[in-house]
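Example 3.2
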Amino acid sequence: MSTELRPRIKIISKLGREQVMDIILQKIYDPNSQFKGWIKEGFAVIYTLQNDKHIWTPQINLQIDEIENGTEIRGTIGPNENIWTAFAFTFSILGFFAFACLFWGLSRLSLGYSATILWAVPIILIIILGVYMLAKIGQQLSRNEVRQLRKFVESAFEE
C-alpha cells in the first residue's frame, strides 16, 4: 500500500495538446460516462456524477502540457478540494501546536521551571497520527473509485 495520500498519474501521448483536450472533452461529455468534469487552458478536473458522491469520493486534477514529441498529461487523484484543504489545515494547526508546546516546554525546562506542557507534544502527535489514519481509511474506502478514475483517463489515451 502506498503511503502517499494523493496518488499521481502520468501519461505521455503522441497527440497534440488540443487533440488531448478534445479527447478528454468527448469522454466527460459522453452521456454514458459515469464521470463528468471540465477542462480549461490545459487544466482538467474529472469527478464522479453527483448522485454517486460521498465525502471520500475522489477526483482527478490533470495538467496537460505540450512536450517535444507530444503531450504530457500529469495528474493527482485525491478527495474534493474542501476535504483536502480541511486535512491540510488540520495537519498544519496540530503541527504548529506541537512545535509551540515543545518550544515552550523546553524553554521552561532550560530555566529550571516545571515543564508539564511537554506532555501535550506526544498527545498532539497521537492526534496527528489519528488524522493521518482517518485519511488513509478514506483512501481505502474510495480505492475502487480511484481505480475507475485512473482507468477512465488511461483508456482515453491507449495507443
